[in-house]
Amino acid sequence: MKRARILVLAITFLALSAVIVTSCASPSPTAQPTPTTAAPQPTVTVTSAPTAVPSPTTAAKPSKVWKLKYDDYAVATGPQAMGGTFIFDYVAKRSGGRVEVEYFYSEALSKTGRQVYSIRDGIASGGFVAMGYTPTLFPMSLGMELTFIGNKPDAWARTCKELYDTYFPMRQEWAKLNMKLLAIQPQEPTVLVSKTPINGPGDLKGKKIRGYGQKLDAIGRMGATPVSIAWAEVYTSLERGVIEGATGVPFTDGYKSKFYEVAPYWIETGMGINASNGWAINLELWNEFPDDIKALFEEASDKVTGYLTEFVQAGYPDVLKTFQEKNVTMIVWSEAEQQKAREMVQPAQAEAWAKQAEAAGLVNPVEFYQRLQDIYKSKAPSSTYKSAFQLHAETKK
User: Fold this and answer.
1) Rounded distance, CA 83 to CA 370, Å?
2) How far apart are CA 192 and CA 397, in angstroms?
3) Could you give the CA distance from residue 111 to residue 101 in angstroms, rounded to a whole number?
C-alpha cells in the first residue's frame, strides 16, 4: 500500500514536469516582443498623381461644360419649338452633364426671322432658322421651298437633310453663315386660313393674303395681293382686318396659335409642304464639340422627323373636334382647281428662282432642283403621314 502511494506520487510529478517543459518550449505568439525597428521597404517614385475613381454614388464633374442658348420665335407648345427642344434635350440628357441648355421661345431672344443672325454671331448657340425671312442669304436652299412638289412632311424633311449632307455647295452656303444645319422640320402642307370661303384661285383675286417665302410668291401668282407679315403678327392682322387670309401656315402651328378664332375657313390648296426651315447650330461651337457629342446631335436630328410626324398626327382628332365646336370649315380645292393653281405658279416660279440663284453665284441650280425632286420621289412611298384634311374626309364618310 505504501509502495502504491509512492508510485502514484512519482507519476504525478513526472506529468507536471512534462507540462512545464512543453509550455516553455512553445511560447504563445502574443508573448513575442514587438520589434522596435520596421523592416526596410522598397522605394517608390510617383511621377504623376493617380486618377481618382469616383464613388458609385457621386458622378465625376465633367472637365468642360457647354452652356447653350436655344432661340425660337414660335410658341413653346408648337411642333417647331418642340422639335428644337427635342434635339437639344436629347443631347443634354445623354452628355453626362457636359451640355446644358437654356430655351428662349416666342421672340424672347430675337425677333422673328432674326435667328439666323443670332446663331451666326454666337448670341444663340442654336435655334430655328426660317430661311424665307432672309432669302438673299439662302439663294440655293430656298429652292427647297418651291411649291407644288411634295406633300409628305416626313419624306420631305429626310429629302432636304440628305441633300444637305450629300451636296457640298449647299453645306457651303450654311457654313458661310457660320452655321451647321442639324435637321429640317417635317412641316405639314401649307394651309390657307381665311375670313371667308375660298374655293379656288379665282376667289383670291384682289384679296390681301399674308404669305411667307415661296408661298408669298405663289399666292401672288394666283392673283392675290401678297402681304409680308411676321408670324407673331398674323393673328392680330387677321383680327383687325389688315389681311383677309394667310398662307405659309403649317397646320398644327396655325392651330396652336389659334388662327381659327379669327379665320374660320381652313383651305387645302395643293401647294405642298409649307417650308423647308430647320434647326441649326453655330458652326464654331459645333467644331468645339468632341465626336461623341456631335454623334448625339446627329442621332437626335435623325429621330426628330419621326417624333414630330407622329406628334402632329396624334393631335388631329382633337383638332377636328375643336374645329367642329368652333364651327371651322375645312375646304379642299378640287383636282381641277389645284391643277389650275399649279399652272399659274409653275414652272414660272422655279425658273425665276433659278435665275436669282445663278445671279447669287449658284453654278447649276437645275442640278440642285433635279436632285431635290429625285430624292423626294425615292422617299415619298415610305411616308406614314396622313393629313388632317384626309382624316376629316374619312370621318365624314
Assistant:
1) 28
2) 24
3) 20
Mean predicted confidence (pLDDT) in 323-327: 98
Rg of the chain in Å (alpha carbons)? 37
What is the layout of strands, in order, in the sheet containing 126-129? 99-104, 66-71, 126-129, 278-282, 179-184
Strands 329-332 and 265-268: parallel
Contact 161, 113 (CB under 8 A): no
* pLDDT tens per residue, range 55-112: 444 557 888 999 999 999 998 998 999 999 999 999 999 999 999 999 999 999 999 9
Q: Report whether pLDDT(36) > 60.
A: no
Q: Which CATH architecture has domain 190-274+326-391?
A: 3-Layer(aba) Sandwich (3.40)
Using alpha carbons only, give the angle 364, 368, 369 rounded to the nearest 5 degrees: 115
User: What is the arithmetic mean of pLDDT over 33-51?
Assistant: 35
- C-alpha closest to that of 226 among 206, 241, 240: 206
Cα 168 versus chain centre, distance: 22
Distance CA 227, CA 207 (A): 10
Q: How buried is residue 54: exposed, middle or buried, by Cβ count under 10 Å (0-12/13-18/19+)?
A: exposed
Q: Select the more confidently predicted residue: 378 or 27.
A: 378
Q: Which CATH class is domain 66-186+276-311?
A: alpha beta
